[in-house]
Structure formats: C-alpha cells, structure tokens
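Work Package 4 report. The design task specified in the project plan requires that, given a folded chain encoded as structure tokens, an amino acid be chosen for each position. We show below one input record used in the internal validation round.
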C-alpha cells in the first residue's frame, strides 16, 4: 500500500487530495493547524489516515515529518499544499513577513527534508502547490507573487537534482489559477474551478509524474500570455 503525507490537509485542495488518495488505496499522513478538521477526515476512514497537527511556521518540520513517516510506515509521495497570502496594497511588513515565513522559510525546510529522504531511499515523488501568480510580480500582493516565484524556481532546481541522481525521484510543480478556496482573494477572478475539479486534475498530473502542471488545464494559456507582456506595459497594470 502506498504511503503519502499531505502538508495542509485541513481545507481546500489539500483536504480534497487527501480524500482522493484514500479512495485510491493510500495510507495518508495529514497535517495542519486545525486538529478538528483533521479529525473529520480521520473519522471518515480511521484506518487510512494518521494525524499530525502542527504549525509549519513555528515547529520543527523535519522532526515532525520524520515522526509522521515512521507512523505511516514509510513515504512514497509528499504533497505540500500549505500556503498563505494576503492583499497588501499598503505594504504592511507584518503581512509580507507572515507570507514569507510559510511560503519561503517553511516551504524550504519541508521540500529539503523530503528531497533528502527520497534521495536516501532512491525513489519518491515530491509535489508542491505553487501558483500561476509566481510567473510575474504583483502590486496587490507582492510577497505572495514573489514567494511563489521562489517556489517555482526552487522546485526547478530540485528537478535538476533529481535528474542527476538517475533514480526514480520526481518533483512536480502544480500552478493553479483561481480555485474556489479561502486563498482566492480579490476582484476580477475568472475561470474559477471548484476545489473538487482542481484536485482531480492535480491527481491526474501526479499519476503522470509531470514536472509542471497548470490547474485547470487552460491556465497554461494565461501563463504564456503573462510571459509575453512587455515590461513597459506590465508595470502600468
């Protein structure tokens, strides 16, 4: 039976992916700050879920992940679905700092631990949810866009490392557009997917072990357009 850990399973995409993995025969270690939400998953399939409730920004992630991996009996797949970001037109530093603590600091500790675990094991699959927002900077939520750009580039570096190992180690970067979760903030949203649809597509990407996947699929068009917009025009947007 395959073993997986989902970081950020209390709600949204992480919560839906936990359900999909269990439906496909996985034992799943689920993490998050809200233990009550994790217990709801656990109660639905008591033999398939193992709970570890902690805050990625204030705990020793490496130690917690090692303990959870032992509890589920190994690790084949880790999905990092924990992230944050707030609208911050006034550039309040605490808002930016909070975003970076999770999206940069905690992200780095978690993916480093995971990659090193899989390298020692000589196989495994790391999946992280970044965002299409990481393609360009953004005036409305500067730290969010910038931290997602960091994630995109970091994951690309890990894919290079995985290739160099010549082992079946896979690193997947999932770049969602708008999904109907608590993370969807601001006006002018379009092509908004349900978390159920987004999660089904993500699971398909995971099964194919793709390096990069856009959710929903048509968001690759927006990603391409964002890269093509000249700097002189983009800075006025």
């Amino acid at each position: 039976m395959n073993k997986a850990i989902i970081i950020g399973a209390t709600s949204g995409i992480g919560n839906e992916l936990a359900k999909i993995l269990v439906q496909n025969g996985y034992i799943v270690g689920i993490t998050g700050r809200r233990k009550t939400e994790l217990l709801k998953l656990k109660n639905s399939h008591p033999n398939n879920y193992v709970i570890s409730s902690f805050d990625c920004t204030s705990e020793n992630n490496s130690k917690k992940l090692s303990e959870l991996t032992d509890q589920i009996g190994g690790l084949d797949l880790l999905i990092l679905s924990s992230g944050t970001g707030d609208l911050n037109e006034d550039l309040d530093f605490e808002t930016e700092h909070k975003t970076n603590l999770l999206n940069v600091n905690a992200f780095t500790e978690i993916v480093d631990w995971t990659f090193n675990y899989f390298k020692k094991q000589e196989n495994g699959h790391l999946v992280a949810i970044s965002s299409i927002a990481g393609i360009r900077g953004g005036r409305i939520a500067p730290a969010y866009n910038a931290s997602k750009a960091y994630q995109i580039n970091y994951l690309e570096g890990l894919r290079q490392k995985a290739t160099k190992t010549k082992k079946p180690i896979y690193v997947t970067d999932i770049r969602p557009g708008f999904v109907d979760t608590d993370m969807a903030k601001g006006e002018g949203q379009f092509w908004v997917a349900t978390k159920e649809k987004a999660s089904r597509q993500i699971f398909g990407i995971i099964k194919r072990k793709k390096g990069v996947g856009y959710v929903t699929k048509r968001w690759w068009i927006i990603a391409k357009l964002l890269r093509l917009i000249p700097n002189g025009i983009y800075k006025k947007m």
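The first strand starts at residue 3 and ends at 7. Validation will be extended to a larger panel in the next phase.
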